[in-house]
DNA polymerase I
Amino acid sequence: MADAAVSPEILAEPVKEAEPHLILVDGSGYIFRAFHALPPMTRPDGVPVNAVFGFTNMLGQFLTRHAGTHIAVVFDASRVTFRNAIYDQYKAHRPEAPPELVPQFALIREATAAYGVACIELDGYEADDLIGAYAKGFEALGGQVTIVSSDKDLMQLVRPGVQLLDPIKQKPIREPEVLEKFGVTPDKVVDVQALAGDSTDNVPGVPGIGIKTAAALINEYGDLEGLLAAAPGIKQPKRREALLSNAELARISKKLVTLDCDAPLPRPIDELLARPPEPGRLAGFLREQGFRSLLHRMGLDGDAAPETAPVSRPRFAPQLPEAAPGTVTEITPAADEAPFGPYETVVDEAGLAPFIAAAREAGVVAVDTETDSLDALHANLVGISLAVAPGKACYIPLRHGPPPGTGDMLQEAPVAPAQMSQEAAIAALKPLLEDPAVMKVLHNAKYDLEVLCRAEHGGIAVSPVDDTMLISYSMDAGRHGHGMDELSLRHLGHRPITYDEVTGTGRARIPFGQVALDKATAYAAEDADVTLRLWRALKPRLRPDQALALYEQVERRMIAVLRDMEIAGIKVDGAELTRIGEDFSARMVVLEKEIHELAGKPFNVGSPKQLGEILFDEQKLPGGKRGKAGAWGTDAAVLEDLASRGHELPRKVLHWRQLAKLKSTYVEGLAAQIDPRDKRVHTDFSMAITSTGRLSSTEPNLQNIPIRTEEGARIRRAFVAEPGHVLLAADYSQIELRLLAHLADVPSLREAFEKGEDIHSRTAADIFNLAPDQVDREARRRAKTINFGIIYGMSAFGLASRLGIPAAEARSIIEAYFSRYPGILEEMERLKSEAREKGYVTTPFGRKLWIDGIQAKEQARRGNAERAAINAPFQGGAAEIIKRAMVRMPRALREAGLSARMLLQVHDELLFEVPEAEIEATAECVRQVMESVAELRVPLKAEIGHGPNWGVAH
DNA sequence: TACATCACG
DNA sequence: GACGTACGTGATGTAC
């Protein structure tokens, strides 16, 4: 390869240039990964090519980085191999390849050849055998071998000259990693596999023996034969019996998993010599598939492909430029064939006018603002970009200064580049941005709307608005992230320039306003272009995906609601925070001294590592458990357990930790966020982060302000109303349990909600068979734990550990719960199978929530996903109810003649700032909206309070 | 940067 | 037989 000397960053140790090094790529792994990672794509002739695209992309990237002298991609040739002669069930219930994948195999071999890389395959042998054989042959010639695969079946090949490279984690797999996976050294892996078997490949193994047990046995007896010979003397009767009666099965299994390193080499090793691709052949292949973005990235779309180079065309043609006859279009679902750039830098009215005209003509324009900060309320507008058609976008710099470091003492001072005045640009753009006949498309519109509505930026009220981030989130919450770069790669097959690439990172970062105009244009106009293309690709999916109403009526309307809440902010009493901080500090000093005395020496109380060593190594307290990193666990549950046994040290540490948390996160963190201009804190609500439809809140997070302890509540009381106002808090009561009663249609729970009873007391009476007046605090506490546990998919084990009762008792409580409340168990099972079959569950209002990992093979991961699937409709349904209330609230208040401002949302609570004279009327209005926003089988209930501060209002 | 911890619903 | 064990977030400090 031409770049064989390039530093091999993904290999653990640099390989000397002269040293022969063979890279063997497990082709099947790449194909499988590409096929499942990418959405369906087809060529214009209908041939599916998503796996081809992914494979070509991955291989191309790999080839620019690897450091081998020799390289080959190894494929499986056929399903039937010599292993089927040994055991006819081998890989028997492997499903056939999906039909869309079948035609792609040949194209993938073509891609490999186009890169100038040898394809290796042989009838009757698996890729793994050939990999083993080439590794053996190459090693014999004195070379090093790297196998690009994370397949555990290849781990048996690891030895000093042979390593695996995990292509996902980009991490080498050597003896320690194998030891971690199988519990034995690589040379014993086949013995462990022979015992443990492998259900995916139908390798039988010995029933009842898993990897852990197998490793222990092999480490004790050396290898399979040693173990089988010693089997009659094994103590555990079941295990002895299993080994004795399945000895032959284990021997067969070992043959199945042992790779045939003596397989014939279909091509001599010399032919694997790495060499650069012939540009013509590669470009030809990429062009045939329509992989324009890859052609572009590899610089092959210039001279090498003159017939597809963009011809000059009218700058503002009303429709897309037509493709030259005989060429293919981009392979992505929304085939936008225009290239990404070059774009125009607009520096005067004459340059801007055609874009405004084109936007009006098209009725749609993508808009993106460039600023110098992520904080929309403080950011300065540096420039604006517009896109009016795919590939047709401009950047309007407004406040670009001179680039740094261009001047020296002998030259004149650097000058700012020529650009439009902000006033002129705003004057020209404001009518367009406020024109009801022109749709403005933005990505994360809330940010740009917040910047543009500020008076110093012209007070522009952008409308109407579409938001590609929210369009994506409405359909694909939980499926993937919704950032522009990720969506572009996923849906357009295009990797946009990143902000970091333009401004640099760390110390070298320069403000966007100092980025040279050509670079700024390439970045900013591309973002508008990408936004417009995403809109064209994603918006049409809304209706077929049954997400149109959700997007139009909830998500889109939330933009302005949240914008106004963020702008409003909430007042924080900084002087009170200071007093709280001083008080906490003083108490921490005392506690710290006492803790050091109890420990017998000073140490950093804030270090869990040091604390664990003192508690469990030095003082030998009982109940220590190590985490995965080998450090002692010292979280609150552990310390509380120790404290309850009378130990002073953990009790004091718990108190110290509480104060430390409150002080650093809330007292100091919050004080730093107070805007000096209005003494208020302005959070940023994230609309497309959570997998369930909830909002999240950052910088500062105002959704986790303390309340559960008295010390924490002091913080909450520092959130105050303006003079003449109060804070009014409205909470949905038991909203998730109401959704449970609704969804599972549980008669007793419905009746309790209907009558306004305490739901946990009702549950206690129901499952413990008590009369209502027999329910004591303990019974209610247990019932409450169960009620919440159910919504979280809790197991008997979890309930037992939370209630501190034996697992058997927990099991019988859960049994009573399910039998007393018919419908709930069925609903839980239904949610799990819905998630398994469709990949998503839905809220009662129809929002799809995708469940990641529901198909995972690993039981732990799948278990997590199943619990997430159970919880998602409740959490997500509640989120949707409160969002509906929020979008109706401003109008309801306005029509009632009320001037209350909505300030915060905390999942099931809304916080308002209300003039004292309007308290009662506002409470009534808020209640009306919140309780009428959904018609369930149970009533919705809002609990409302008010006071001079948030602590009292709650 | 990863992990542990802990604040909230 | 093994493996984990209640969902969803964001901020902070320590240690690597």
